[in-house]
Amino acid sequence: MVIKAMTHEGLEGLITSFKKGMRIFKRGLKKAVAMLEKGEEKGVFVWAPSLKKWLKDPDYISWLGTNLFFQTLGKFNQNASRKEKLYQKSNKNKYG
To answer: Tell me, what DSSP letter sits at residue 8?
Structure first.
């Protein structure tokens, strides 16, 4: 019974990680497709042919998605920090 519960919990964790990884990969893929289209349009791949190969590489696409994830996370943290400062400032004005 304990083994089944541990296996079930382990599988849930694995599935959750897989879902997060897929979301990150999808973000990277969306960005890679946009960059491929822009690169073709602007002639970037004439002078940077390796970039075209990278944008089709699953590892690079994952890296793009991870990078976008951390950029989004950073913006979220900055916004939360600003809200906290405004909250502290407003309370200081009320009670200070």
So the answer is: H
